[in-house]
Amino acid sequence: MNVWLHRISHCYEVSEPLLEQNYLTIGFSDYVEKYESYPDDKTIQENFEKDMANIYAQNFRQRFNLRKFLFEFKVGDLVIVPSWGKFSVYRILDLAVPMIRLPQEVLDAAKINAYFGKDGLLWEKKTDQEIDLGFFIKVEPVKQNIPRDGYCSSALISRMKIRNATAMITGLEKDVLEAVRRHEENNPIDFHDEASKVIRDHLKKIILDKLDDIRFEKLVLWYLKKIGATEAYIPAKNESGKEDGADADVVAIFELFKVIIYVQVKHHDGQTSDWAVQQIAKYKEQKDQRDDPYTRLTWVITSAEFTDDAKSKAQADEVRLIDQNEFAEMLIDVGLEGINSAF
């Protein structure tokens, strides 16, 4: 499948309503008579260059547009039709044929005040002037009126600015399909989201490659202070009162909200098991004091992902799981300024 760009600005007052009826057009009506005189497509193509020179001029550059339209557009190809501030995508259903074969009912449905003359060309009734549209292709809409702003890649926007009436843009097929998908889902390009994805992936790699478990704990500590913890600290590993594997690597107190967050921090690649959930859940259970005003929350932050068992255990024990992607996004949202002070 190829992807094409094709403009219908030529005789727009007729080509646009015809496209609304799913007929894509091009000019070159002067060539129709010669085209129709040949017995088959092979003869048409063999004589094309000579006919262009005789009818128009030697080295007539616009002939390349017609060549693509007549001989290179194939059934199943996609065609991008740009318009002011937007564009539409169509799929080719049939090969190009002369306008004389356009059904009269199509003209009527398009409300075009025109008729086919004895020469087989299209003429405007009001002025009795020829309409320079020579050929058409039957198409079906894939997606219409996609705004350029917010849905197109910069490469696709740039390509739609070229002056050529017809051009192959198959190299941008992914960009075209992505624009269609975004428009169907009403999901325009979000700069923050797109930038965050790129930064997030770099952060994940840096956290895994450049930090160890101690430095990762310090990074989590810095984050909690950054979001407003009144007090945050890393408990001693031999903290008294811990039993049966209970453990927290970071504790943060938010005095204004009377909230304490206990965090179990895991630095490794791969998957984090439900043992981390058990550790922090038991820690909270052993630290809970029913006679104070604080609400105690439990988090597990990992540089990896979580197993299904961990997710099930966390849901049962009301533990928040924060994997590598979410923590990287949390760092991005809070801002990286001053992050070196974490270490």
TrEMBL record:
Pfam family, one: Mrr_cat
Any GO molecular function: endonuclease activity
Gene3D superfamilies, per database record: 3.40.1350.10
Highest taxon of source: Bacteria
Coiled coil: none
InterPro entries in UniProt: Restrct_endonuc-II-like, Restrct_endonuc_IV_Mrr, tRNA_endonuc-like_dom_sf
Gene Ontology process terms (BP): DNA restriction-modification system
Name by which UniProt lists this protein: Restriction endonuclease
Organism lineage string: Bacteria, Bacillati, Bacillota, Clostridia, Eubacteriales
UniProt entry keywords in alphabetical sequence: Endonuclease, Hydrolase, Nuclease
Keyword S-adenosyl-L-methionine appears in the UniProt entry: no
Keyword Ribosomal protein: no
